[in-house]
Amino acid sequence: AFYTYAFAWGIDAGLLDRATYQPAAIRGWDAIVRAVQPDGMLGWVQQVGDRPDSVSARETQFYGAGAFLLAGTAMADLARKESN
């Protein structure tokens, strides 16, 4: 989610090339949306640690919702500017 946010924000700010980074941002957003569980929780969120660890669809952390909102807002801004 944080990479999706960074790509979308960077494109919107004119720091990243749209043609290069927008496809990755869209794929990232699609993956984040698929990670939303039937109960509304965002799954596949790794806990904070000193190294990568395996996770499952049912694992979530509070910061995952914040990352989802940041990415969603940046993607919405990008889509809104693209449609104008």
Mean pLDDT: 94
The helix count comes to 3
Helical percent range?
A: 55-70%
From the N-terminal CA to the C-terminal CA, the straight-line distance is 25 Å
* Strand tally: 0
What structural class is derived from the secondary structure elements? Answer: mainly alpha
Shape: elongated
Element pattern in H and E: HHH
Estimated share of beta-strand residues: under 5%
Low-confidence sequence ranges:
none
Give Rg in angstroms. Answer: 14 Å
**Total domains:** 1
Biggest beta-sheet profile: none
List keywords for this structure.
84 residues, elongated, 3 helices
Characterise this structure.
- The chain is an all-alpha fold.
- It has one domain.
- 60% of the residues lie in helices and 0% in strands.
- It has helices at 2-12, 18-34, 62-83.
- α1 packs parallel to α3.
- The mean pLDDT is 94.
Structure summary:
The chain has about 80 residues and is mostly helical. It has helices at about 1-10, 20-35, 60-84.
